[in-house]
Amino acid sequence: MSLRESNLSRAARYAIPFALVLIAAWRTQVNATVPEAYLDEVFHVPQAQAYWAHKWTHWDPKITTPPGLYLWSYVLCAAMLALRGSPAKLDVAALRTTNVAATAVFLPWRLQTLLDTVQKVRNNRPFSAWLSHTVLNICLFPPLFFFSGLYYTDILALLVVIEAYNWDLKRVNGGKYGPIYALGFLVFGLAALVCRQTNIFWVSVFLGGLQVVRTVRQSAKICKSSDVSAVVKGGFQNEVYDPLVAEASLEDYFKTALSLAAASLRNPFSIVASIIPHIIIMGAFGGFVLWNEGVVLGHKEFHTAGIHLAQMLYIWPYFFFFSWPLLVIPLLNLIAPTSILPKCLNYGFPEKQKKLPRLVAALAVLPAMLAIVHFNTIVHPFTLADNRHYVFYVFRLLLGVHPAVKYGAVLVYFLCGWAVISAFGFSIVLAPPRLMQVPASSKPAAPAPNPPAAPTEEPQGNRKERRAKAKEDKATSKKEATSKKDTGSKNNKQTQPDPQSPEALAKVQEHLTQRQNQQPNAPRLASFLFGLLPPLCHWLLPLLSSRATLSFLG
């Protein structure tokens, strides 16, 4: 790496904190425009002020989430009071500042640590700079950025999940310190539940699922067959079917799930032993639900549990709308011909990856989506009761213009889902180099002859003996070379292929592409499936506010 590249990479990485100043500027603008409590702050601010006054038994029955946010604000403001002598009284602006501290300081720091650990590129400055910009993208993700200026639970809930993920990775790679890191993971996993109930699906289901995948992969081989029966049989024989997300079809999702299930049943004790901390957290959450007689703390009459399959349709346009800058380049590589793509945008996608949704997938998924829209469209009363939410206008468009609009939106759900999943398989690693056939006439230049060595004096007898031996060796080697040339020239022409033939180059190119696909950081289907589990599990959660109905991070 050149000095210029090193300096640019360093500048790119350390420019991130300056960009995060936008969060503080956003908080200032929000305070100037909305100085009073806004939306759910009407409930959160008085509760935090009650805790600041040491009224620990006071609780607003309209608050549905646990008190983690108020405890966080109490600790931060108490530390500021000890250091600066303020704030003596908590107002809306002071409480919003605690969210800014989480977003602009703690969240980028812990996200950077997490990505460095997952990608294992701490000493690679160019890639670390790219990871730093990934951290910035996450912190500036519009829903998160918006609530960073308000006193809401979103930011802190995400921060504690990220920290639990960090400790879970330490637990896995901790060696003899593994039990200590496991205890730290339990602490932050339970703290995540104190911030928001839905975090159970991230710290227990998602992280536990990733641990199951890691445990299975440690000893399993790759299942090369794509036949369903062979995939299931291979799972019981310690073989895992786990293709790249970029190359997976709809059928591959079911095959990978079957393969993981079979491989887990083959080694149940090792699987259970690896996820004991996640089981403990799940058990603690189950005990809370039994004690509380429900998931939410307050407003239980407006938060009844129910199956909400339509939520799995809403999240795809939600993802697409807020992430379209990250989806543009992958989608261009997927659907645009290579001939019209500029070199700066062409990432050398393989041809089998450049495809639109298959007809079979559309015929299987679209009818299911239509059935969900027809039989399971549920609109929370709060959604249509408050026009300060954008979701209010979205549902007015879907339900109020014409009855057919909600069915026509199914095509939008399908295409957005395809775009997001396809882009998830996008890798920033450049394509393998293309090999070119060199014309046979072009031969490398002959090396320059070495200058003759200076003559040295030696005894006369030794000189005569050497000359005689050299003549004898030369005659013998000439005879052997002549006989080998006569007997083996034809066989050599038949058995040894031309190293520059198209067939040989194709095999080498295939090997390079295969090595490219075996990169450890490329998204694979098994891990991606467990990434989909949290929103899937939200079906069984109470229908929270209209914002949480569409929120994947909720």
TrEMBL record:
Segments of skewed composition (Polar residues): 489-498
GO biological process: dolichol-linked oligosaccharide biosynthetic process
Catalytic activity, reaction form: an alpha-D-Glc-(1->3)-alpha-D-Glc-(1->3)-alpha-D-Man-(1->2)-alpha-D-Man-(1->2)-alpha-D-Man-(1->3)-[alpha-D-Man-(1->2)-alpha-D-Man-(1->3)-[alpha-D-Man-(1->2)-alpha-D-Man-(1->6)]-alpha-D-Man-(1->6)]-beta-D-Man-(1->4)-beta-D-GlcNAc-(1->4)-alpha-D-GlcNAc-diphospho-di-trans,poly-cis-dolichol + a di-trans,poly-cis-dolichyl beta-D-glucosyl phosphate = a alpha-D-Glc-(1->2)-alpha-D-Glc-(1->3)-alpha-D-Glc-(1->3)-alpha-D-Man-(1->2)-alpha-D-Man-(1->2)-alpha-D-Man-(1->3)-[alpha-D-Man-(1->2)-alpha-D-Man-(1->3)-[alpha-D-Man-(1->2)-alpha-D-Man-(1->6)]-alpha-D-Man-(1->6)]-beta-D-Man-(1->4)-beta-D-GlcNAc-(1->4)-alpha-D-GlcNAc-diphospho-di-trans,poly-cis-dolichol + a di-trans,poly-cis-dolichyl phosphate + H(+)
Organism: Penicillium cosmopolitanum
Keyword Nucleotidyltransferase belongs to the record: no
Name of the molecule in the record: Dol-P-Glc:Glc(2)Man(9)GlcNAc(2)-PP-Dol alpha-1,2-glucosyltransferase
Function: Dol-P-Glc:Glc(2)Man(9)GlcNAc(2)-PP-Dol alpha-1,2-glucosyltransferase that operates in the biosynthetic pathway of dolichol-linked oligosaccharides, the glycan precursors employed in protein asparagine (N)-glycosylation. The assembly of dolichol-linked oligosaccharides begins on the cytosolic side of the endoplasmic reticulum membrane and finishes in its lumen. The sequential addition of sugars to dolichol pyrophosphate produces dolichol-linked oligosaccharides containing fourteen sugars, including two GlcNAcs, nine mannoses and three glucoses.
GO MF annotations in UniProt: dolichyl pyrophosphate Glc2Man9GlcNAc2 alpha-1,2-glucosyltransferase activity
Family: Belongs to the ALG10 glucosyltransferase family.
GO cellular component: endoplasmic reticulum membrane
Membrane topology classification: Multi-pass membrane protein
